[in-house]
Design goal:
The complex is a heterodimer of chains A (96) and B (159). Chain A is mainly alpha-helical and 96 residues long. Chain A has one domain: Helix Hairpins (Orthogonal Bundle), CATH 1.10.287.3510. In chain A, α1 runs antiparallel to α2 and α2 runs antiparallel to α3. Chain A is elongated, with a radius of gyration of 16 Å. Chain B has 2 domains: 111 residues; 39 residues. In chain B, 76% of the residues lie in helices and 0% in strands. In chain B, α1 packs antiparallel against α2. The termini of chain B are far apart. Classes of the chains: A mainly alpha (96), B mainly alpha (159). At the A-B interface, α1, α2 and α3 of A face α1, α2, α3, α6 and α7 of B.
Chain lengths: 96, 159
């Protein structure tokens, strides 16, 4: 059941990443995808009886998740100040 | 009884993931993401990982939500900009149900997962400080990189 829910979360995240053009919604989709991967990690760590290792890996994953979210949000705010849009297609205007 | 509680928690997570992706208002999407993290922390706690559950609740449900709401408030996009295509508002629930049904009815064709017991069964404290100590160096480097990136993006140009 846990892998079933994880697969659905990963599917939802990938679907929105493919079809959305709103940069913030794309980042939210990445977060949903990461939740699916988190469920997978803990499903495997419970199945292999290694919760300690699972938690240690999760802390690293959480740090990367937060820093990626901070950096991408800073990039989105910076891009919005330049283009007045959060549409990902406007990024092509930035090419030198 | 346990199975039914897990089923409710997983249904809540998937339901709020659909709401997060399909709702037009970005603030509501960020709040739905926080609810996913909160429910996920309950699932993680029930799987026997209390430290990770506390981190998920405080960092993912708290800090990341605050970051999203701050960024959305800074941008304050108009309603037209938040409008999503019909592929997301209508297509996502249909596609998710179709994918779920495909997984459910096609599971007999999928390979059966079998897990061996891991040799690393030490508690988190020993695992983090002895087995995965190099990860801590990587985490510090990633945090410093993030700080550098944020400074780079928000640096004011000198006139």
């Amino acid at each position: 059941m846990i892998f079933y829910a994880a697969a659905l979360l990963i599917f939802i995240g990938l679907y929105v990443l493919v079809f959305s053009r709103n940069m913030i919604r794309m980042l939210i989709a990445v977060e949903v995808l990461v939740k699916g991967l988190t469920l997978t990690l803990f499903g495997v760590s419970q199945a292999t009886k290694s919760q300690g290792l699972g938690q240690a890996l999760f802390i690293t994953m959480l740090v990367i998740e937060v820093i990626a979210a901070v950096a991408i949000l800073a990039f989105i705010v910076h891009t919005y100040r330049l283009t007045k849009s959060i549409d990902v297609r406007t990024l092509s205007r930035l090419k030198g | 009884m346990t199975i039914s509680i897990d089923l409710v928690l997983f249904a809540l997570i998937v339901g709020f993931a659909l709401i997060t992706s399909a709702v037009r208002d970005l603030i509501r999407a960020a709040l739905s993401l926080a609810v996913i993290s909160a429910v996920l922390s309950i699932v993680i706690f029930r799987l026997g990982a209390p430290y990770a559950a506390a981190f998920e609740l405080s960092v993912a449900a708290g800090l990341i939500t605050v970051l999203f709401i701050s960024a959305i408030s800074l941008i304050n996009p108009d309603k037209e900009a938040m409008k999503e295509s019909v592929m997301i508002t209508a297509g996502l629930p249909i596609a998710t149900v179709a994918f779920g049904a495909l997984l459910w009815f096609g599971k007999k064709y999928l390979p059966v997962l079998s897990f061996m017991e891991s040799p690393h069964t030490a508690p988190i404290r020993e695992t983090l400080w002895n087995l995965r100590s190099l990860d801590l160096v990587g985490q510090i480097l990633i945090i410093l990189t993030g700080v550098f990136l944020v400074i780079l993006f928000f640096k004011e140009k000198r006139s």
